[in-house]
From TrEMBL:
Pfam families: PadR
Alphabetical list of PANTHER family matching this protein: PADR-FAMILY TRANSCRIPTIONAL REGULATOR, TRANSCRIPTIONAL REGULATOR RV3488
Stored InterPro entries: Metal_resp_DNA-bind_regulator, Tscrpt_reg_PadR_N, WH-like_DNA-bd_sf, WH_DNA-bd_sf
Record lineage: Bacteria, Bacillati, Actinomycetota, Actinomycetes, Micrococcales
Name of the protein: PadR family transcriptional regulator
Domain Transcription regulator PadR N-terminal span(s) in chain numbering: 21-92
Native species: Arthrobacter zhangbolii
Length: 113
């Protein structure tokens, strides 16, 4: 059976979206909708908002993010996510690993297409 573009994207997202969320928080705290908007800018990386909050909860359980409740200019308080030192370390390891991995994949795809 030939995979669909969506099934390939699903597999690629599984290993990378967590780290992309950490990268979003590198510049400072953000609440869920802000993170979703940043991830959705590229149109390929982020599939749906329904997957974001379980992912953020998992990152919090791993100790890679912490949360605070902040007043909102409209509506209820917002939960802001902050990158921890452990999250920064995880992102650095991912980044060091990602660059050569992505380069090798790109080389293989070009050579074999």
């Amino acid at each position: 059976m030939t995979p669909t573009a969506e099934s390939v994207l699903t597999q690629l997202r599984k290993g990378t979206v967590d780290y992309c969320v950490l990268a979003c928080l590198r510049s400072g705290p953000a609440y869920g909708l802000e993170i979703a908007e940043r991830l959705g800018e590229g149109k390929v990386l982020f599939a749906s908002g329904g997957t974001l909050y379980p992912l953020l909860s998992r990152l919090r359980q791993q100790g890679w993010v912490t949360t605070t409740l902040e007043p909102s200019p409209v509506g209820p308080p917002r939960r802001y996510y902050h990158l921890t030192d452990e999250g920064t370390d995880a992102l650095q390891v991912f980044t060091r690993t990602w660059h050569p991995f992505a380069a090798d994949v790109t080389t293989m795809v070009k050579e074999n297409s």
